[in-house]
Amino acid sequence: MPLLRFVDGEGQLLAEVAANAGEVLLDVARLADVPLHWRCGQGTCGTCKVRIRHDGPAQPVMPSRKERNVLLRAGLIDPAQAGAESWPDISSGWRLACHLPVGEQDWQVLCPQD
Questions:
Q1: Mean pLDDT calculated for residue range 92-100
Q2: What is the DSSP string of 16-85?
Q3: Strand duo 3-7 + 49-53: pairing
Q4: pLDDT tens digits, residue range 46-89?
Q5: Is residue 7 a contact partner of residue 86, using CB atoms and an 8 Å limit?
Q6: Which of 47, 50, 77, 98 has a CB 3.0–4.6 Å from the CB of 39, allowing a cystine?
Q7: How far apart (Å, rounded) are the C-alpha atoms in residues 63 and 80?
Q8: Alpha-carbon distance 23 to 17, whole Å?
Q9: End-to-end alpha-carbon separation of the chain, Å?
Q10: Which strand (E) or helix (H) includes residue 6?
């Protein structure tokens, strides 16, 4: 069972939550009362953006077309990245918590407060 450490933009711990692999990150955050901004929960507004860090081996990230389009529209990725079906697994990349299934390893989840 992966351990998720939610932190704010300053690196301060917001919550530490055990989750099941495959659960949607936004659902985990909401159930644990993590102060993660979200509006629609359907992957159309982009307010639930997060960054993920982990110590495990890098795996290709395969965001859905919808997620890529929302991130592009929000200015969080460039058109070349929006056109790619997989991305490198980097901690500087944005993801939408409403589209992101929890992985098998422990994560640090950066929740921007903007």
A1: 91
A2: EEE--TTSBHHHHHHHTT-----S-SSSSS-TTEEEEE-SS----B---HHHHHHHHHTTSS-HHHHH-S
A3: unpaired
A4: 889 999 999 888 888 899 999 999 999 999 999 999 999 999 88
A5: no
A6: 47
A7: 14
A8: 12
A9: 30
A10: strand 3-7
Please determine, looking at this structure, whether the domain spanning 3-59+90-110 carries the CATH number 3.10.20.30.
Answer: yes
Q: Do residues 111 and 10 make contact, with C-beta atoms less than 8 angstroms apart?
A: no
Tokens linked to 101: 């299934």
> Tokens for 98?
């409403």
Q: Is 58 left (phi over 0), alpha (psi -120 to 50) or beta?
A: beta
